[in-house]
Amino acid sequence: MNKKLLDLSDKIDDLTVELFYVIADVADSLNVPFFAVGARARDWILELCYGVSTMRRTEDFDLGVQVSDWNSYARLREGLIATKKFSPDEKKAQRLLYKGKGNFPVDIIPFGPIAGPDERIFWPPDDGFEMSTEGFEETHQASITIKMRAKPLLEIQSVSLAGLASLKIISWNDNPGRGDRDANAISGTLLTLLTYYHFDTISFSMCFSGSRISHRAPRERRGNILT
User: Fold this and answer.
1) In what order do the strands lie in the sheet with 34-37?
2) Do 39 and 186 meet the contact criterion of CB atoms below 8 Å apart?
3) How far is CA 198 from the centre of its chain?
4) pTM score, two decimals?
5) Maximum separation of any 2 CA atoms in the chain, in Å
């Protein structure tokens, strides 16, 4: 695991903290490692840590949970529902709705031994919903620690910006039918970082920087660009 820790204990809203207290309590009781992925994690790092405003906002939460099989995943899901804080989403197999101030969607994505050699999962009972978990193991290993509250202590693992970009590149390559969603997510993060940190650098060239990034092979080198 990446040893980097971001102390955001006075910056994350109470609803989000409450949600993760519940998730951490259930996941820890079942010995299920998890980490935050997706745009929420990006916003925590950019906005709350570095003061950089992001161009897109999202109301949902995305979690990666490391489980060995579907029974382990079902126990986690049932444990969360048993808290009375979550309800199932009848339309999306991976989603629970958090009963805070409104129903917030929480997508819980299993990865690890549950996936086959090709890192794909097929949702029971009829295997009708397929999802790739490629890159999740690597991004979990390279995840950073976010301190959400000091008392009682709440620390969770979160995808790094490099890890998030890697996942989006893989998703973009695997799911061309999604249109420009992944490309926009990648470019938005990169442009934000470039704008705030590099435009005033001597000899900086967006053209050359973009070329270097775009010519990386995400499948072959993803493990090297996460830290």
Assistant:
1) 5-7, 144-149, 154-158, 34-37, 61-66, 102-111, 95-100, 86-88
2) no
3) 26
4) 0.79
5) 57
Amino acid at residue number 61: F
Question: If you compute the radius of gyration of the chain from its CA atoms, what whole number of angstroms results?
Answer: 18
| Alpha carbons 61 and 122: distance in angstroms, whole number | 21
- Which runs of E-coded beta strand occur in 89-185? 95-100, 102-111, 120-123, 129-132, 144-149, 154-158
Domains and CATH numbers, the chain: 5-160 (3.30.460.10)
Which amino acid is residue 55, in one-letter code?
A: M
pLDDT digits 0-9 by tens, 105-164: 999 999 999 998 889 999 988 877 888 899 999 999 999 999 999 999 999 999 988 888
41 by Cβ neighbours in 10 Å (0-12 / 13-18 / 19+) ranks as: buried
Residues 49, 93 contacting (CB under 8 angstroms): no
Q: Which two tokens stand for residue 3?
A: 């040893």
Written as six digits, the tokens of 214 are: 């775009």
What is the spatial distance between Cα 176 and Cα 213, in angstroms, rounded to a whole number? 19
